Structure formats: C-alpha cells, structure tokens
Amino acid sequence: MKMRKLGADGPELSAIGLGCMRMTPLTAQQGWTGKDEGIATIHAALDAGVSLLNTGDFYTMGANEMLVGEALRGRRDKAFLSVKFGAMRAPDGQFLGFDARPKAIRNFCAYSLQRLGVDEIDLYQPSRIDPAVPVEDTIGAVADLIKEGKVRYLGVSEYNADQLRRAHAVHPVTALEIEYSLASRFIEPEILPVARELGIGIVPYSVVTQGLLTGALPAELPADDIRRIFPRFQGENLHRNIAAVEALRAIAERKGATPAQIAIAWVLAQGEDLIPLVGMSNRSRLPENLGALDVALSPEDLAELDHAFAPGTFAGSRYPEGLESHVAS
C-alpha cells in the first residue's frame, strides 16, 4: 500500500481511504448489500493496507458507527478512524440541520465512543458549519476533547478558506474533508492554496461524483434512486454530464483502465497532500478502486483531463437548494 502523510502534523496513512457511509444506507434502493458484507468490506480493505476509515455519527442515525465498531473488534490498531459530527436527523432520516454547540459536541463524542467501542477517535470533525455558533467555539470544544485524550487530531469538513484560517488559529487543523473531483474543482482557486499554506491535508470525498464518473449511469435514474434529489442528476443536467464523461471513457480505454480509476488517479495526482476517500459497500469493488494507485498519468494525460474537465464542464450544483448554503463554495 502506498502511503501519504495526513497534513503537516498527522500520521502516515494509506493513500486511499475507505468511505463507510453506503454500508448502512437510509433506503434499500441505495444498493445496500447487507451488514455482513459491509463488515467483510472493511476487513478486506484493512487486509489490503487501507488504514483510513471514514464514518459519521449521523450516517443512518448511528448504525454506521456500530457497524464500523463491530468490524474493528480485534483490529483497532489497523485503522485510523475519521468521524464527522453535527448533522441532525429525525427518526425517518429527515435532515434537521446542524448543531455545533460545545455541549452538543461533547454529547456527540460520548455516543460515538460508545457506538464505535473505542477509547479515542483519531480524527474528529464538524461535518458542516453551524451558522448559529462561532467557528472558534466549535473548534475550541474539539480542542478540549483532544486535551482530555478522547480525540487525537482535529479535522473539519466543507470549510471555506476564511473558516479554515479561523479554525486553525484556535487549534491546528490536521485535515479538511471536502468534495473534490474532475466534476467539482471549486477548491482550486482559494481553499486548496490556503490549506496548503497552513499545512492542512485534504481528504477529498465523492471523487467519482456518486457514480457519475464511472461512465456507467443510465440516461435516466430509477424513480427511487436517491441521487435524483441532486441537481447534477436531474433532466438535461444529467444528459449533459453523461455526455461529458465520454471524454473520460476515451482516456481510460487508452490507458487500459476504467473511468473510475482515471478519476481517482487524477485526484491522487493533484498532490501528495491529498488522501481521497472512496466509498464502498461491497468488497468486490476493492480491487478496481485500489487499482487506481497503479495508474500513471503523464503530464500530457493530466493536461488532456484538465482541458476536457475544466471548471464549469458539469451542469447542476452539488447539493439541492436549501443545502447549498451549508457547504463550501
């Protein structure tokens, strides 16, 4: 397994991390393969040398943490646990907003430690900004948990450049989890340079844009496909975006790789300070995804991809109206 350092003050981790969210989806239509397969996928990833595991306390209202915790029994020393907190859900899964008050953070952490069955969380991060709570208060609460030995490193998710600076001024930020892919390059002008200036590692998620960059999507998604709520997967936006992916397919065929491998390899090629997350719920996906580590993109390949997938190529915003205000832009 190729290794990379997580930020200026973090540990050496696998160059690709495992996103665990899809192992406990809210609906069966999200392709759930079952709890046992989720655990088997984590075990296979750990056996292959993947050390970064990513979850959130709001992924299926704690069920994801419990699955990860069960998978790590007897294997805790092989995993670096990244946990997001702050999003709130109703019993039916409905999104209710974010809570990043210091008291709430201590409560979230206590429950996460119990569900995961661990004494310490390796990387703990607010999932989004809470507009009602100053960044400094949120970060200060995590810093207190670090002092108490409940958390090892501070991370943040979907923070913009200004918020990164404010957070880092309170306590060193080890990693920024944020969407970054050939279809989402908004971090390049300002957020990425600031993160690098501050020595903050980047953990990109959605590197194949919820399957769009695999080149395998149909012209119209099934009525029960949860991706239909996202503007990129609606109507003419979806048709335009599927057409754009054809350029990726052509490069993949020339390189003897799959479109997904090229998409992951492109993210990896953007710098040694990036450790992309790849979400999986089935161990059969592991060889293809880890195979991206062996895809060598030449300067000419990178220039071609940069041109074919210039910012603005893909139609539709990242999140539905109402959620866009909660993510970096």
UniProtKB/TrEMBL annotation:
It comes from the Bacteria. One of its GO terms (cellular component) is cytoplasm. The keyword Ribonucleoprotein does not apply. One of its GO terms (molecular function) is oxidoreductase activity. InterPro entries: AKR (IPR020471), Aldo-Keto_reductase (IPR050791), NAD(P)_OxRdtase_dom_sf (IPR036812), NADP_OxRdtase_dom (IPR023210). It holds the Pfam family Aldo_ket_red. Residues 16-307 form the NADP-dependent oxidoreductase domain. Keywords: Oxidoreductase. This is Aryl-alcohol dehydrogenase-like predicted oxidoreductase.
